[in-house]
Design goal:
Elements (H helix, E strand, L loop, with lengths): L4 H13 L12 E7 L6 E9 L2 E10 L2 H14 L4 H15 L22 H28 L1
Antiparallel strand pairs: 1-2, 2-3
Helix pairs in contact: 1-2, 2-4, 3-4
Length: 149
């Protein structure tokens, strides 16, 4: 399902103008990571609250361009309520989509708006920065998740 470029643009601009889940919370139960894009101004702080292997909240804040803010907003919307396993699957498919590899578009929901970002390589990193942050948080969880089993 290819999405019209005007619709993509309007979704991105809406998430940039009115980002969802923006604003950090002072709560030690959240896993946190700071991500910087050394090639531009993008700096994003991400927070995930995971309870019983489920992402119950996802937050972000920082100074970043429209592509990075909108990507953070769409990503946090997509991950809230998902299990860690589902989040890893979404992440894997999103990264595959950006790399122009085979992916499952159905599980990406609104994140599909970035399906053509590889055509503008200077924007690719902006879009990927928050996703890399979540990947980092989830990778740090893996040993503790294994211990629970």
């Amino acid at each position: 399902m290819k999405m019209d470029s005007n619709l993509k643009r309007s979704v991105i601009l809406e998430h940039y103008s009115n980002p969802h889940n923006r604003g950090l919370i002072d709560d030690k139960a959240y896993k946190k990571v700071n991500m910087n894009n050394e090639s531009c101004i993008d700096e994003v702080n991400l927070m995930l609250k995971i309870e019983k292997d489920k992402i119950v909240d996802a937050r972000f804040d920082g100074e970043a361009c429209a592509m990075c803010i909108s990507s953070s907003s769409i990503m946090t919307d997509l991950l809230i309520g998902k299990s860690v396993k589902e989040a890893n699957e979404i992440l894997k498919n999103f990264l595959a989509m950006v790399k122009e590899e085979k992916y499952n578009e159905k599980i990406l929901e609104e994140a599909i708006v970035y399906e053509d970002v590889s055509k503008t390589p200077n924007r690719e990193k902006c879009v990927l920065l928050p996703w890399w942050g979540v990947e980092k948080i989830l990778d740090e969880l893996k040993p503790s998740v294994k211990e629970e089993r």
